[in-house]
Recover the amino acids of this structure.
């Protein structure tokens, strides 16, 4: 199910949070209602961790992760790194990388199997992504935009991309990612999908300006209506319980 | 960092925004333009068709030209930028731009800002959005409008706005007047919403305010129903704005310690929007409240950002308009 919420009057939920199948990161400093909405949806399934990255609250745009790992920019402080390592499940590898393009969330979009990367990303970073996140990396653009992380958002079930993506590009991306893709908007016509929306295999969070039409598109392309967390989490249950104890 | 007075900046250059340099740069632009050709056309035609979506005609061309040629500036690529500002009626497409401008209108409270913006954009007869001509992005640089508190009193955003103002008002004698204005007298009160990018050239202020007050008076004649016509017969305007107040301004003992940086009028207040000072002097009452939103670091470390609410009677508006003309000419 998709939930609409706001962070301090901003509808850019994907900027202040990062949702994957194994964990959820939430920015500090927002009102408690922001945090509690995530908790209400996810608490008994995956850990919801409050954090900052390099003292910033725009964590969704600075880091990238999936069930296998989490990549952090070089601006992350040691305390934040330690806090994340302590709070996340053991099977999630937390790594800080030296990459010139430090807004990793804007440059990289990924699910548990495939990642799309900014065309100017370092070779070394690409290898680390493939290694830590366990994904195949493709350098792509989306509707001519190199910030793939900002203009698309995809999970293992489906994806939403920039509204001006051509049919040919959509087909090509869909083949690469092996998931159905739809070109659409979020937050009442905003093209920056990655900033307005954060999604995993069974739930999504988007800004409260999102219209009913946009919400129904999101729910149908990400297959959220019939999605149950148990189906996905069962696979990971062993490792998750270990870390809670 | 000292700025050479011959260079002038127009709003398309991203600049760190601090008080004294901004006032100085605005002064430079104004002084250079006083003699140069200005293609202002204020809307003095009374029968101006209000129904047209694009006002178009009042174009305000600002040219920044340096008198000395060949002078180099160390602050990056500051060339001459020509900007034509055009005034438009509000339309639904402006939603995102206007929402960004009004993001910190009520501090960091979570309220129905989207509903508020919708309200502003739905009122096409009174209200102006300032854009740059030929801009592909179509981003609004300023929004100015007047909303009748009584007409919209059932809207969630207005209710939340009233609650917020009553909650932050700390002064007992003012809170009574505020409650009255927003309650019984609401149908005579216009909420004057005026928000813009901080570095919008001040020459735009007189035509912008003229446009607003002229539209209000035209609406009292041109609106289709009597109820709507009456809704624009404001007796009083309510303004919610922001100021920088000197931290020691309240303490009489510390008056000697108040730094006369030149940009405050001696009462320890720096007005982010210059016309607020005129409004303040003409206001019935006013109060300030502390704000939590983070602001850009200013040079004046002893000042803190505060919200500022004022009530101005309609009778004082014509004085205000005259003062505004001279304010821009002088500076």
């Amino acid at each position: 199910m998709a939930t609409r919420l706001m962070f301090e009057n901003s509808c850019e939920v994907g900027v202040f949070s990062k949702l994957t199948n194994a964990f959820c990161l939430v920015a500090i400093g927002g009102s408690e209602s922001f945090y509690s909405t995530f908790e209400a949806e996810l608490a008994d399934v995956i850990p919801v961790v409050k954090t900052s990255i390099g003292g910033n609250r725009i964590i969704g745009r600075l880091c990238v992760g999936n069930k296998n790992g989490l990549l952090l920019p070089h601006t992350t402080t040691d305390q934040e790194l330690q806090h994340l390592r302590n709070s996340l499940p053991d099977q999630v590898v937390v790594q800080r990388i030296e990459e010139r393009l430090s807004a990793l969330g804007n440059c990289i979009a990924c699910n548990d199997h495939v990642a799309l990367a900014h065309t100017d990303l370092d070779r070394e970073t690409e290898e680390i992504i493939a290694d830590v996140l366990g994904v195949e990396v493709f350098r792509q653009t989306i509707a001519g935009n190199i910030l793939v992380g900002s203009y698309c958002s995809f999970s293992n079930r489906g994806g939403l991309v920039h509204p001006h993506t051509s049919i040919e590009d959509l087909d090509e991306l869909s083949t690469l990612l092996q998931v159905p893709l739809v070109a659409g908007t979020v937050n009442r016509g905003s093209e920056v999908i990655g900033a307005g929306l954060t999604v995993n295999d069974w739930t999504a969070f988007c800004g409260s300006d999102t219209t009913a039409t946009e919400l129904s598109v999101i729910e149908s392309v990400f297959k959220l209506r019939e999605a149950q967390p148990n189906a996905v989490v069962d696979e990971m249950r062993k490792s998750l319980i270990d870390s809670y104890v | 960092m000292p700025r050479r007075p011959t260079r002038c900046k127009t709003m398309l250059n991203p600049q760190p925004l601090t008080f004294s340099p901004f006032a100085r740069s605005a002064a430079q632009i104004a002084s250079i333009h006083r003699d140069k050709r200005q293609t202002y056309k204020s809307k003095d035609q009374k029968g101006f068709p209000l129904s047209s979506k694009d006002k178009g005609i009042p174009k305000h061309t600002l040219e920044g030209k340096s008198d000395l040629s060949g002078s180099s500036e160390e602050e990056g690529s500051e060339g001459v930028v020509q900007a034509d500002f055009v005034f438009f009626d509000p339309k639904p497409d402006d939603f995102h731009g206007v929402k960004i401008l009004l993001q910190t209108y009520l501090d960091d409270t979570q309220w129905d800002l989207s509903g508020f913006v919708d309200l502003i954009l739905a009122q096409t007869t009174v209200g102006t959005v300032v854009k740059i001509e030929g801009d592909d992005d179509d981003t609004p640089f300023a929004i100015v409008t007047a909303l009748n508190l009584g007409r919209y009193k059932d809207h969630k955003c207005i209710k939340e706005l009233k609650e917020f103002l009553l909650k932050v008002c700390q002064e007992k004698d003012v809170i009574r007047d505020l409650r009255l204005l927003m309650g019984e007298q609401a149908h005579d009160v216009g909420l004057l919403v005026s928000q813009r990018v901080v570095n919008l050239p001040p020459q735009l202020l007189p035509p912008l305010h003229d446009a607003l007050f002229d539209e209000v008076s035209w609406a009292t004649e041109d609106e289709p129903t009597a109820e709507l016509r009456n809704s624009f017969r404001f007796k009083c305007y309510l303004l919610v704005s922001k100021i920088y107040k000197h931290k020691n301004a309240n303490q009489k003992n510390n008056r000697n310690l108040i730094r006369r940086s030149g940009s405050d009028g001696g009462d320890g207040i720096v007005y982010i929007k210059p016309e607020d000072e005129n409004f303040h002097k003409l206001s019935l009452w006013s109060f300030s409240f502390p704000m939590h939103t983070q602001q850009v670091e200013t040079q004046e470390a002893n000042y803190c950002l505060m919200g500022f609410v004022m009530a101005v009677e309609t009778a004082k508006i014509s004085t205000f308009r005259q003062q505004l003309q001279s304010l821009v000419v002088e500076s």
The longest helix of chain B spans residues 205-222. Residues 2-18, 33-59, 61-76, 251-262 of chain B have pLDDT under 50 and may be disordered. Chain B touches chain A at residues 95-96, 103, 108-111, 113-114 (CB under 8 Å).
